[in-house]
Amino acid sequence: MVSVGLVGVGALVTGGAAILRREGDRAYDRYLEASDPRVIEREYDRTVRYDRWSATSLGTGQVMFTTGLFLLVTGLGR
Amino acid sequence: MNRLSLAATLTAALAGTLLLAGGCTTRDRLNPLDPANSETRGAIPGFGAIAANGLVELRWTPLTQKGVAAYAVHRWKPGGTPAPLPGAVFGPASSGTLDLDVVNDSTYLYRLVARFTYGDSAVSLPDSATPGARFVSILGADPSSVLGLSPDARDVISAVPAANAYEDFDLDRDRGVLWLSDPVSGTILRRGMNGEVAGLTLVVPGVTDVSISNLRGVGWIASPEQQRIQAFGPDLNDPTPRFIISGLGHARVVEAGTLDPSVWIGNDEGTVFRVSPTDGSLLEQWNVQAPVRAIALDQADRSAWVVTIRGSTNDLYHLVPGDTNAVAKRVGLENVADVEVETVTRTLWVSERGRPRFAAGRVSRLAADGSTIATLAGLEPYGLTVESGRDHVWVCDLTSNRVYELDANASVVRRSPPLGVPYGILIRDGMAVAAPLVRSRRGIR
């Protein structure tokens, strides 16, 4: 049942990546609208952080999902 | 290693690669007020000071960022310190103003200050403007157009496109009308300084050169293919010539005087004629032994400088009425594009283009004996014009695509932003402020 678990967790982590990406977009919009240099820097840093988390989550989720699918199809995970 | 271990190892490697790739992508720092923005460095973009006659127009693009409370303008003279322009405080949606408290031919520096609700402010890069009465008209080849520049030549204030590149143009200074020759369509167009139609289009097949006698507002047009010179005007809506001069061979160059009202004509057969402007009768003629390519009048003594082409080089003659001798003052000039007499010191400016696209030309100021007084090399000059009452010259450079103002020592005192291959230039003084802003370019600081 490792394969099923990998597929499920992979799907959840990928979904989380989309949420993080949306948060990154929002932070970037706040960055573009800001006029205060402190806010500009803070929101840009936040954007970068969310983008990294999103990319990490997307990569990890996709790998887990694909691996789980591979194991499920080949029957190796049983 | 069993298959499960292999799958786990591959998964870890793939995850690591994706993590690395994800960490490398970053978004552009597009907020113009961001000090890390590589284009603006945190300065307000889109601010420009555009000189005009007796005023400076200040334009800016309102910021889209939140928290803008007001805009203010600072002004100072070169070497001075920025100070708020009195009364120049504007709302967040404002986009421009006029500074009327200026003196022509004085240089001012301006910057825009945005004040924010949280108490801080941001500034634009400074822009300078030198208001004046001068209006600069440029023939551009890419695209074919007539450009109007601000008095300090730092901004393009009008651009009138043309179907074909004009061969030549001249200015009726009294009426502010440009006569533009289009050899492709065989027409002469008359246009105001901002491109408005000022008269009927004249049909002159094979037109090359055009010259205006400002005394009468008569335009003289050379058509070597037709072997004649035609005079039109002063009625700009009269399409028939006042008279036609024939029998002068392939007359290619014509230059009409104002102080000296006679008309000088040069042909491909190597003869220069001086004719009466009232009936076109021949007054005098010279044999310069080679096709004539340019004539510049020195109206103070009613003489003329004549450029001929011999092989790949040019010779320069100074012809004086009453003296039928034609002796070259200079020989071996390199691809002369234009000549004009500067009336203050009565010297001759010569534009030698040199070999095209090699920046091997020069602009020189010559004395009456043909000797060089001053020169500027390392460019590819084309059309030039002298500003009346000053010893400066304006010249088009095909290397930089800019227009330069040179002083009597041939030193650059002003330059335009890059233009679309400028090759002809005229300057009119004392023009009223009327030019609408079509587009502007930021100049060199």
Task: Explain the overall architecture.
The complex is a heterodimer of chains A (78) and B (445). Chain A has helices at residues 2-33, 37-74. Chain A has one domain (2-70). In chain A, α1 packs antiparallel against α2 (37-74). Chain A has two helices and no strands. Chain B contains one helix and 36 strands. With 445 residues, chain B is mainly beta. Classes of the chains: A mainly alpha (78), B mainly beta (445). The interface between A and B is medium-sized, with 29 and 36 residues.
Structural class of chain A: mainly alpha
Strand proportion of chain A:
under 5%
Taking the alpha carbons of the first and last residues of chain B, their distance comes to 69 Å
Radius of gyration of chain A: 17 Å
Helix content of chain B: under 10%
Q: Multimeric state of these chains?
A: heterodimer
**Whole-number tally of structural domains of chain A:** 1
**How is the biggest beta sheet of chain B arranged?**
5 strands, antiparallel
Task: Give average pLDDT of chain A, whole number.
Answer: 92
Gross morphology of chain A: rod-shaped
Number of strands of chain B: 36
Summarize the structure.
The complex is a heterodimer of chains A (78) and B (445). Chain A is an all-alpha fold and 78 residues long.
Features of the shown structure:
heterodimer, A: 78 residues, mainly alpha, B: 445 residues, mainly beta, 1 helix, 36 strands, 46% strand, disordered C terminus
List the helices and strands and how they pair.
The complex is a heterodimer of chains A (78) and B (445).
Chain A: H1 2-33, H2 37-74
Helix pairs in contact in A: 1-2
Chain B: H1 3-24, E1 48-51, E2 56-59, E3 68-76, E4 83-90, E5 96-99, E6 108-116, E7 121-123, E8 127-129, E9 135-141, E10 144-149, E11 156-161, E12 168-172, E13 177-182, E14 187-192, E15 202-203, E16 210-213, E17 218-223, E18 228-232, E19 243-246, E20 251-256, E21 263-267, E22 271-275, E23 282-287, E24 292-298, E25 303-310, E26 313-319, E27 328-334, E28 336-342, E29 347-352, E30 361-366, E31 372-379, E32 381-386, E33 393-397, E34 402-406, E35 412-415, E36 422-428
Antiparallel strand pairs in B: 1-2, 2-5, 3-4, 3-6, 6-7, 6-8, 9-10, 9-36, 10-11, 12-13, 13-14, 14-15, 16-17, 17-18, 18-19, 20-21, 21-22, 22-23, 24-25, 25-26, 26-27, 28-29, 29-30, 30-31, 32-33, 33-34, 34-35
